[in-house]
Automatic annotation (TrEMBL):
Protein name: Nuclear transport factor 2 family protein
Domain SnoaL-like intervals: 16-112
Pfam families linked: SnoaL_2
Length: 120
């Protein structure tokens, strides 16, 4: 059964919280430590596979812009899938974006992360 309830961030799995905290401050090394060896990240229809590609993505993601990140929602989909919704404001085109970070966990690590526009 799918559960769609807003959760405070402290009720997210530690792996998701800690990955996200590292990602927000652009600490690619720490963020990568929460990923499986065969992790996949999909960001706006671009796919990165394996720890080397994913680490490079995390290192470069958004580096050409200045922006703030605010968590505005979180929910549990099932035992292995979680969604964190964030609002970005900054110097990128459009200046404001709401994104869903859709995490799939395996053995307490992130096996897949899909970053996409938030579906209102």
């Amino acid at each position: 059964m799918t559960q769609h309830t807003d959760l405070p961030s402290d009720l997210l799995p530690a792996t998701v919280r800690e990955f996200f905290a590292a990602h927000v401050v652009r600490d690619a090394d720490t963020a990568s430590s929460f990923l499986t060896e065969d992790a996949v990240i999909v960001d706006q229809d671009e796919t990165f596979r394996g720890r080397k590609e994913v680490h490079a993505f995390l290192w470069d993601a958004g580096s050409e812009f200045e922006y703030t990140t605010e968590q505005i929602g979180a929910r549990r989909v099932d035992d292995t899938r979680w969604v964190v919704t964030v609002r970005l404001e900054g110097t990128f085109p459009g200046g404001v974006a709401e994104l869903d970070y859709r995490f799939t966990l395996r053995d307490d690590l992130i096996a897949e992360l899909v970053i996409a526009n938030h579906a209102a």
